[in-house]
Design goal:
The complex is a heterodimer of chains A (470) and B (334). Chain A starts with 6 loop residues before the first helix and ends in a 22-residue tail after the last helix. By secondary structure, chain A is mostly helical. Chain A is built from 14 helices and 8 strands. In chain A, helix 3 runs antiparallel to helix 4. In chain B, strands 1-2 form a two-stranded antiparallel ribbon. The longest helix of chain B is centred in the middle third of the chain and has 32 residues. The chains are: A mainly alpha (470), B mainly alpha (334). At the A-B interface, helix 2, helix 3, strand 2 and helix 14 of A face helix 3, helix 4, helix 5, helix 6 and helix 14 of B.
Chain lengths: 470, 334
């Protein structure tokens, strides 16, 4: 019973659950806000009804997700204090600033302009109304920057000094905090990946209709846009992912070692990257493995003869530096999360390139299975995003702030296991119920297709959008 | 002046902003069963706050983050200490927020009734519990030497705190109902006016009792001045509503909420989280605040961006200044 009610374990599960859940909606929101803004811009410039219909179609799916992102986001901010009060006391002087900046600069912006966009179709001049969706998109991207800068401090603490008397980290250089090399690589990596997710959604929705040979006037341009965005975002995600792994090797070599489950330091050809391993992933015995020589060296150091430090060597180093303890994350999680992230990500770029070839010069494939593959773009690209986030956060363990504070020392001492169990069950139930509702609403909105938007104005030839109300 | 004292009042200002703005959202949400006779009525009510509830709610996120940044100890003690109460607030805010967006997604009346219920409960729970929480902060709670709360949820539900909760509940309700009369036309506007008159009487009595209790137990000079402003504004707001001056009534009630919340902060000053068991364990502005450097950075950000935020939010209210009518709801598609 006491083991069941371990507050640390429960708090970690709750944070993981609520963060992953919140993070499902974040990339969709970031990507779809911009997607909607792009199509609205196309309508603004051309006045063509089909662009307005695409705008309203993806706009409505965007809003269904946005609502979930907003309400699950509040939980994230409250949870630092509720479940991780020792962390909050230790790090608030540093970590609080980017959160406050996020609220003041990004969330206010996003929350205000989304209201203007939803309800302003007939109240604002067309150009100003277009600006509100761009403001929403910019706000969401800006918020990602601040939260990643805050998270980067946990991965690679910079811009702080220890105050021994107060027993906490204190900010001494906000510039350094906001230009943390980990943040500078993780931010574009995450944003580009968000566009992979949203283009996955665009491809899925378009494919569903095109497979049924309907809504061709709107779904063909949407598909084309989705495929090109996937390719471009895929290239950027890969490029910045590579930058991020360099930063990771420099600052958190244990995470890279855990990503590859490399126990001993390896160099050159021996620094191989296993695509697949069968066996006990704790490294004690390996039954079967497909390995690409030099690849790990290339990923980690950008050279063929680089060395990658192994878990055992790092464990010895850290024990000497920080005292006795287990400094390795859970290897099977990091090993497989890293592979699924890269594998699913690359798979989508390939699918998109093939899709562009199959639909070149207005062709439409007839085979049902091709469209089925396309429809899976959305869930699988979202899965790639999620395992990427799980990798980066689980790979940080056992630290909550690398080299400064252990996760187990950060939990609220006065919140009992029963308290956390109650909240964990409550969040699981409400999040579960809302997941069912939200997925059904999204599928329903997709199947309904782009809405009709009325007849063009007799003089201007433009279509005037209708009012929106709740 | 010491920057940490400045930030005590900035945090107060952000919570004031939250309670003034999201407070009447809660009131509108709670008024659904009283003012909404049919689906169109209820849609009219929801649409009065439709474009602004999200920006109003964001004030609590900014207030919370500023508390975290400027007073990490206060944030940590408060949020871990009031764990289950904040959990209930979070669950309520989740239910309310998705309901605004999901209610209109399907036409079935069962679907709508379900989300109406979530809006009502999701508005009432935070309206009550925020008052309970702030009354407990002013009153003080048991803390250990590490500034950790040592009581339970039920210790928070003491008579004084419950009276505080009832006060915010009623105040937000009346403010929301007056907002409805300001933003609608026809029958519903009349109903709202009459309801505000009746609710206002109860609100005045309960609020007077709470402010008096707070003043006698924890009052400072500034508390009495601000509480006096709140009392005069509340009675003035009630009278203005009686005479049909909806705009004046709404403004005076906004002043009531602002003055009352500022009064609580004035009663708290210079403590931030007094300990009821041993004063030495309590948190003060002095021992709970962030470093000078962090507060300086935050001050520059606030000075530059807070006016900008206030400007574009005021502009939003101006854009949506027109009244919401049954005709406008029925004319619009889903």
């Amino acid at each position: 019973m006491n083991e069941l009610l371990d507050p640390l374990l429960l708090a970690r599960w709750q944070f993981g659950l609520t963060t992953v859940y919140h993070f499902l909606f974040v990339p969709i929101t970031i990507g779809l806000a911009t997607t909607t803004a792009v199509f609205q811009t196309a309508w603004y410039r051309t006045g063509k009804a089909e662009y307005l219909r695409i705008t309203r179609f993806f706009g409505s799916i965007f809003l269904i997700n946005f609502a979930m992102g907003v309400v699950t986001g509040i939980v994230q901010e409250f949870q630092f204090g509720m479940n991780w009060s020792e962390y909050s006391r230790f790090v608030g002087d540093v970590f609080g600033a980017p959160l406050a900046l996020e609220g003041l600069l990004a969330f206010f912006f996003e929350a205000t302009f989304i209201g203007l966009w939803i309800f302003g179709w007939d109240k604002l001049p067309r150009g100003l109304h277009l600006a509100t969706i761009w403001a929403t998109a910019i706000g969401s991207i800006l918020s990602a920057y601040f939260i990643i800068a805050a998270n980067a401090f946990m991965q690679n603490p910079v811009g702080y000094e220890m105050n021994a008397e107060k027993g906490r980290a204190e900010l001494v250089d906000i510039g350094a905090l906001l230009t943390n090399p980990v943040a500078l690589a993780a931010f574009p990596h995450t944003i580009a990946a968000s566009f992979m997710v949203s283009s996955g959604l665009v491809i899925s929705a378009a494919a569903w209709h095109l497979a049924r040979n309907q809504h061709l006037d709107t779904m063909r341009p949407a598909l084309k846009f989705g495929l090109w965005t996937m390719v471009a975002a895929g290239i950027l995600t890969t490029f910045f992912g590579d930058q991020l792994s360099l930063a990771m090797v420099a600052t958190q070599p244990m995470k890279m070692a855990a990503a590859e489950a490399t126990y001993d330091t390896v160099c050159g050809a021996d620094a191989s990257f296993s695509l697949f391993t069968l066996g006990t992933p704790d490294g004690t015995s390996e039954l079967f493995s497909i390995r690409v020589p030099y690849l790990l060296s290339l990923l980690s150091t950008h050279s063929f003869d680089g060395c990658v430090e192994g878990i055992n060597d790092l464990q010895a180093q850290y024990t000497a530096l920080y005292g006795p303890g287990d400094y390795a994350p859970i290897i099977w999680v990091t090993y497989w999360a890293f592979r699924w992230m890269i594998g699913l990500g690359l798979l989508h770029v390939i699918i998109a390139v093939v899709g562009l070839w199959l639909t070149r010069k207005g062709r439409m494939p007839k085979q049902a299975w091709i469209w089925k593959v396309a429809i899976w773009s959305f869930p699988l690209s979202l899965a790639a995003m999620i395992v990427g986030w799980i990798f980066t956060e689980m790979g940080r363990q056992p630290w909550i702030v690398f080299s400064l504070l252990w996760t187990e020392s950060a939990v609220s001492p006065n919140v009992t296991g029963l308290d956390v169990l109650i909240s964990l069950v409550a969040f699981t139930l409400i999040y579960g119920a809302l997941a069912v509702v939200e997925v059904r609403l999204v599928i329903r909105a997709i199947k309904k297709g782009p809405p009709e938007v009325g007849e063009p104005h007799p003089e201007t030839g433009r279509v005037e959008p209708a009012t929106t109300v709740y | 002046m010491d920057l940490s004292i400045v930030w005590f009042w900035v945090v107060a200002f952000l919570f004031v902003g939250y309670f003034v703005l999201d407070g009447f959202d809660f009131g509108v949400g709670m008024s659904l069963p009283f003012l909404g006779r049919d689906d169109t009525d209820r849609r009219v009510l929801i649409n009065t706050i439709g474009p602004v509830w999200d920006l109003n709610e964001t004030w609590v996120i900014v207030a919370g983050a500023s508390l975290f940044a400027a007073f990490p100890e206060w944030y940590a003690t408060l949020f871990s200490g009031f764990y289950l109460a904040l959990l209930l607030i979070l669950l309520a805010l989740i239910a309310r927020g998705v309901s605004f967006e999901y209610r209109h997604q399907r036409p079935e009346s069962r679907w709508k009734r379900w989300f109406d219920g979530m809006i009502v409960v999701g508005s009432a729970v935070p309206a009550l519990l925020w008052g309970v929480a702030f009354a407990n902060i002013v009153q003080g709670v048991p803390l250990d030497a590490g500034h950790n709360y040592t009581g339970t949820l039920f210790d928070l539900l003491n008579p004084y705190a419950l009276l505080g909760g009832l006060t915010t509940l009623l105040l937000f309700f009346t403010h929301g109902v007056v907002f409805v009369s300001l933003k609608t036309e026809g029958e519903i506007r009349e109903r709202a006016r009459r309801l505000a008159t009746r609710a206002g009487v109860v609100t005045i009595l309960v609020a007077a009792l709470f402010l008096l209790w707070t003043g006698l137990a924890f009052g400072t000079t500034w508390f009495w001045i601000l509480a006096g402003v709140a009392a005069v504004a509340l009675i003035g707001g009630w009278l203005a509503n009686l005479r049909g001056a909806e705009g004046v009534s709404f403004t005076l009630l906004a002043i009531t909420v602002a003055a009352a919340v500022f009064a609580l902060f004035a009663a708290l000053f210079p403590d931030v989280m007094p300990a009821s068991n041993d004063p030495a364990n309590g948190l003060t502005i002095e021992n709970a605040s962030s470093s000078e450097y962090t507060l300086t950075v935050m001050s520059w950000v606030a000075v530059v961006f807070l006016p900008l935020v206030l400007a574009y939010q005021a502009w939003t209210y101006w854009v949506f200044r027109k009244r919401v009518t049954r005709a406008s709801i029925e004319a619009a598609a889903h």
